């Protein structure tokens, strides 16, 4: 069967040439002879050989963008979950098969060394993976772009499971260096914190000026990673900032014996780029996160302005030549920072700076959860960024006066528009700041965008009714089909030709083959091979044997109560009870896979992980189940794990409480790889159903409107639980310690929450979910029907390409030609 990755560009060299270059890189760039080279040495040498070809295209594209004075997109994101880059770059350059042959001639297995490349610990979940897909798509559709973020030394954390509990360990992904990146010491910018603001007289007749004197200073040093588009159409830049001290060591303190004090500034700077999302359950963690957000936003803006000034000489043209995009609220501090730079450093007046700022920024909202719409205590904000606090108050005054002069807003609505939250502790609302400071605010699915208008930004939407728009998320098919599922890609090429490799919409031609028995058999064989690969991984890592002929039911995502892993676990317990009680029935063999990380300070999420593992221990060890049901929690879920699990899935769990998932992209990746979705009408599930058809997706549960109605009208979960025999028995088993005999009360509070408030509607949706799972069983038993539906899912996923999403951003928000 043909492979997706054996396409070559005309100028690509023969394998013998590449083999010679690998040996040369090994000798002169790593200092090793082939006879003593380690697998990591071969990995680094191979990457550097391909990286040289990336650099040629990188420099060429950068030079052309400068000469043509092309408008650039600057994408600011606290996360970039880029995963391993070797296969990405090799494939997009068309070098995969040539490098495979070259290394084979040297006695090296490409797949073996590729597995050694660590996942870059630069993100956590969907937000960061979306940013990575967008960067690849911007290069693919030929948009000059820079991504800006933080070069985390340890990232989120490496998850281990010990006695069923999540344990957080440092993710030391840089232990062997990063052969993809380039340190740019010359691109270092000072970032300040604290201090005071001085008012000084301006030139005669001009307003007074404000000068901020920070009492803390750190350096943000740039590290650049090239981002290769498909066919290497363009290579863009991911620029990540690392914190360094202005003075690495205070020598006078060191010589005086104060060794800790001498390195205090160095340690403080290093902390800024050490860990992603420090625990915010204490004030020190909150402060560090706020510092991180300002650190990378300030450095990025200084870099952008310096580049713009060097080319155009002035900043009034910034909105015409630069589109700065805020990926969620994390970089929202960039709004007052740009205002500060324009006014205090470059001499603009407030009105001109505000006009430039709003025309330059755009903002993507990713959540309707109040806690995810960041806000910062005013005292913290004012202590660390006193000048920015002044600017926030000035912006707020202008906007509130604008709202009041319309005569359309009462006091409560004015308060909801304000950048300052007044009830309780006074806080700066970063979501409102990003909204007000941008000319475009987009949601990431059709449902999410409409809910934004009705909920979190209802009054801001009334004030600026043209500002909110929708850009449904997408995924790059290069990583999420061509690379992670070579079997399916090869089968598609064999069946419909190669056009879909460059025009993903051509994948729709597969739909015509859903009724072809021979094609279905080949499709099923590819799926079986992918499931066997996952089964082998689970056996090697966890010692659990699973049957690839069983239905693989997979839920992998961040652990959060609204994503409702608990609903899935309770249904597994119910199914377990039914299998034992009714052994005579024709049960569908099923393996339920879970994976995902819980935030270190999120108690209930960590408890859900423990429950999943406790349930797995009991079910997997019970011979009366006869192997008909197994539960597996895969530790340390990341991009590389997803690349194995998604192609192996038969059933994709997208079961969030309706109205709470902004979009999701895992739902798209699963469907593209031939899984059927079981889910609520939430996020992009709505649009997936529209494209694959009602009969090719399993939808259950309350709608977003029904969830809101129940919450508003006094939902009583106890009555719902007691009316459901299966649910009440499952809850009773968990509460009584059936799955935690050594600690019977471990889950009592978690279960009591379902009786008392059930905010996430687990009880309300349980019976519908369980019934839909039995409908899944019925379809699974009819193998031809199942695979016909799976093929239709693959065929109708082309619309969810991030290339489409990026073209919409380019045309409708960034005003960049594509």
Automatic annotation (TrEMBL):
Catalytic reactions on record: [(1->4)-alpha-D-glucosyl](n) + phosphate = [(1->4)-alpha-D-glucosyl](n-1) + alpha-D-glucose 1-phosphate
Cofactor entry: pyridoxal 5'-phosphate
SUPFAM superfamilies: UDP-Glycosyltransferase/glycogen phosphorylase
Enzyme's top EC category: transferase
Signal peptide: none
EC number in record: 2.4.1.1
Superkingdom classification of source: Bacteria
One Gene Ontology term of the molecular function aspect: 1,4-alpha-oligoglucan phosphorylase activity
Keywords assigned: Carbohydrate metabolism, Glycosyltransferase, Pyridoxal phosphate, Transferase
Database matches in InterPro entries: Glycg_phsphrylas, Glyco_trans_35, Pyridoxal_P_attach_site
One Pfam short name: Phosphorylase
The UniProt record lists the keyword Membrane: no
UniProt keyword Transferase present: yes
Family recorded in the similarity comment: Belongs to the glycogen phosphorylase family.
Described purpose of this protein according to its UniProt entry: Allosteric enzyme that catalyzes the rate-limiting step in glycogen catabolism, the phosphorolytic cleavage of glycogen to produce glucose-1-phosphate, and plays a central role in maintaining cellular and organismal glucose homeostasis. Phosphorylase is an important allosteric enzyme in carbohydrate metabolism. Enzymes from different sources differ in their regulatory mechanisms and in their natural substrates. However, all known phosphorylases share catalytic and structural properties.
Protein name: Alpha-1,4 glucan phosphorylase
Protein source organism: Aquamicrobium soli
């Amino acid at each position: 069967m043909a492979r997706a990755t054996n396409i070559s560009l005309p100028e690509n060299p023969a394998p013998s040439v590449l083999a010679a270059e690998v040996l040369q890189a090994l000798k002169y760039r790593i200092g090793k002879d082939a006879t003593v080279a380690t697998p990591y040495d071969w990995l680094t040498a191979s990457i550097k050989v391909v990286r040289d070809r990336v650099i040629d295209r990188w420099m060429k594209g950068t030079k052309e963008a400068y000469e043509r004075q092309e408008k650039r997109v600057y994408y600011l994101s606290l996360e970039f979950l880029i995963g391993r880059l070797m296969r990405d770059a090799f494939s997009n350059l068309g070098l995969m098969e040539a490098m495979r042959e070259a290394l084979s001639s040297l006695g090296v297995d490409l797949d073996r060394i590729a597995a050694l490349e660590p996942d870059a610990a630069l993100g956590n979940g969907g937000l960061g993976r979306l940013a990575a897909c967008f960067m690849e798509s911007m290069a693919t559709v030929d948009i000059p772009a820079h991504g800006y973020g933080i070069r985390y030394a340890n990232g989120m954390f490496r998850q281990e499971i010990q006695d069923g509990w999540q344990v957080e360990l440092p993710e030391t992904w840089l232990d062997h260096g990063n052969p993809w990146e380039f340190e740019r010491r010359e691109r270092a910018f000072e970032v300040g914190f604290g201090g005071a603001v001085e008012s000084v007289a301006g030139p005669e007749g001009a307003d007074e000026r404000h000068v901020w004197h920070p009492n803390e200073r750190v350096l943000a040093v740039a590290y650049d990673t090239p981002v290769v588009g498909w066919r290497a159409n363009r290579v863009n830049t991911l620029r990540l900032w690392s914190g360094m001290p202005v003075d690495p060591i205070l020598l006078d303190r060191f010589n005086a014996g104060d060794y800790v004090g001498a390195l205090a500034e160095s340690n403080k700077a290093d902390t800024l780029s050490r860990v992603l999302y420090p625990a915010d359950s204490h004030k020190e963690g909150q402060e560090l996160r706020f510092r991180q957000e300002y650190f990378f936003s300030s450095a990025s803006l200084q870099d952008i302005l310096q580049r713009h000034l060097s080319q155009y000489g002035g900043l009034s043209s910034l909105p015409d030549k630069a589109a700065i995009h805020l990926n969620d609220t994390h970089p929202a501090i960039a709004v007052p920072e740009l205002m500060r730079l324009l006014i205090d450093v470059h001499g603009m007046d407030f009105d001109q700076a505000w006009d430039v700022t709003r025309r330059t920024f755009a903002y993507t909202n990713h959540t309707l959860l109040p806690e995810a719409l960041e806000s910062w205590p005013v005292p913290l904000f004012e202590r660390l960024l006193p000048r920015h606090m002044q600017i926030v108050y000035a912006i707020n005054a202008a906007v509130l006066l604008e709202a009041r002069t319309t005569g359309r807003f009462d006091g409560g609505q004015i308060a909801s528009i304000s950048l300052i939250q007044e009830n309780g502790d006074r806080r700066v609302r970063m979501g409102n700041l990003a909204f007000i400071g941008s000319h475009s605010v987009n949601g990431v699915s059709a449902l999410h965008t409409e809910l934004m208008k009705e909920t979190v930004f209802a009054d801001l939407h009334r004030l600026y009714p043209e500002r909110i728009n929708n850009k449904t998320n997408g995924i790059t098919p290069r990583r999420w089909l061509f690379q992670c599922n070579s079997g399916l890609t090869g089968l598609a090429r064999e069946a419909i030709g190669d056009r879909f490799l460059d025009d993903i919409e051509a994948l729709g031609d597969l739909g015509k083959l859903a009724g072809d028995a021979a094609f279905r058999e080949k499709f099923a064989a590819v799926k079986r091979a992918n499931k066997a690969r996952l089964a082998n991984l689970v056996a090697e890592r966890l010692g659990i044997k699973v049957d690839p002929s069983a239905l693989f039911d997979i839920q992998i995502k961040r652990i959060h109560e609204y994503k409702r892993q608990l609903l899935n676990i309770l249904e597994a317990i119910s199914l377990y009870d039914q299998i034992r009680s009714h052994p005579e029935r024709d049960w569908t063999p099923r393996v339920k896979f879970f994976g995902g990380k819980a935030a270190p300070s999120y108690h209930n999420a960590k408890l859900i992980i423990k429950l999943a593992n406790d349930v797995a221990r009991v079910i997997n060890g019970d011979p009366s189940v006869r192997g008909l049901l197994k539960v597996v929690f895969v530790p340390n879920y990341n991009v590389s794990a997803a690349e194995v699990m998604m192609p192996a899935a038969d059933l994709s769990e997208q079961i969030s409480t309706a109205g709470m998932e902004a979009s999701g992209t895992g739902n798209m990746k699963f469907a593209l790889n031939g899984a059927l979705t079981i889910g609520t009408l939430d996020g992009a599930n709505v649009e997936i159903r529209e494209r694959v058809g009602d009969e090719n997706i399993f939808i259950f549960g309350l709608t977003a409107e029904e969830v809101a109605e129940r919450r508003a009208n006094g939902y009583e979960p106890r009555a719902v639980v007691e009316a459901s025999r299966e649910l009440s028995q499952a809850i009773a088993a968990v509460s009584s310690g059936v799955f935690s005999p050594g600690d019977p009360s471990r889950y009592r509070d978690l279960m009591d929450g379902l009786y008392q408030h059930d905010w996430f509607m687990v009880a309300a949706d349980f019976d519908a979910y369980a019934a839909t799972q039995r409908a899944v069983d019925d379809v699974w038993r009819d193998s031809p029907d199942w695979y016909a539906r799976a093929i239709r899912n693959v065929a109708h996923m082309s619309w969810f390409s991030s290339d489409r999403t990026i073209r919409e951003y380019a045309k409708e928000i960034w005003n960049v030609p594509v």
